Amino acid sequence: MSFLKDPAMLRTLAVFSVLALGFTPVLAQEIVPAAPAAPAAPAAAAPAPTDIEINPTEPLAVASARTDMMTGFYATLAVIDICAVTVTPDVVAGMAADRTRLETATGLDAAAAAEAYAEVRADVEKTAPDCAAGSADLASVEAVTAIYAEAAAQAAAQPAVPPAGEGTLNTTPVPPAQ
Predict the structure, then answer these.
(1) Residue 124 pLDDT
(2) Contacts of 95 (CB under 8 A, 6+ apart)
(3) 9-27 pLDDT, tens per residue?
(4) How far apart are CA 116 and CA 68, in angstroms?
(5) Average pLDDT for residues 25-43, to the nearest whole number?
(6) Nearest 5 degrees, angle CA 36-CA 38-CA 39?
(7) Helix 89-105 crosses helix 65-82 at what angle (to 10 degrees)?
(8) How does pLDDT run across 52-78, given as a tens digit for each residue?
(9) What are the contacts of 63-72 at 24+ separation with CB within 8 A?
(10) Long-range contacts of 94-101 (CB under 8 A, 24+ apart)
(11) Residue 128 region, left (φ>0) first, then alpha (ψ -120 to 50), else beta?
């Protein structure tokens, strides 16, 4: 046991023992199967439906990420409207473009989009958003409008690029043909 007198060996053994103690609970959780759940009290059997109709053409009422995004976007617009938040024209333009893009992506025509916005706005009004400066409701609106303001500033900083197929006019004189 002369190796226990070496300080480097003692440190190594100490490190390994700490690691072993640290991994023991993790390994134990992986090895031991989960305890079986207590059996639930038997519920009264619901009567089986007498006729089930399956219509494969019926649209599913499942919210997608796009519809969630659209709802959040409408909620932000509703808080802007309700709290009369001043928004710069470049932010309004950016939000209008995204609104159109999201409405198109979710398959909303103008009438359906107006109805969806009215429903979301009514829900937002029920929550009575806090329009006081520094409130959480206004902070979330300011965070969204800041993203659009930054995007507008970056777009303004980009040099103007002519549309595809168009170039600048070459005004260099051409020498006459000989």
Answers:
(1) 92
(2) 73, 77, 87, 145, 148
(3) 445 544 444 344 444 444 4
(4) 12
(5) 52
(6) 110
(7) 150
(8) 666 666 555 555 778 888 889 999 999
(9) 64/106, 66/102, 66/105, 66/106, 67/106, 69/102, 70/102, 70/103, 70/106, 70/108, 70/116, 71/120
(10) 94/148, 94/151, 94/152, 95/145, 95/148, 98/73, 99/73
(11) left
Q: What is the CA radius of gyration of the chain?
A: 32
Q: What is the DSSP string of 36-62?
A: PPPPPPPPPPPPPPS-----TTSPP--
pTM of this structure: 0.55
Q: Which of 137, 153, 69, 150 is nearest to 103 (CA)?
A: 69
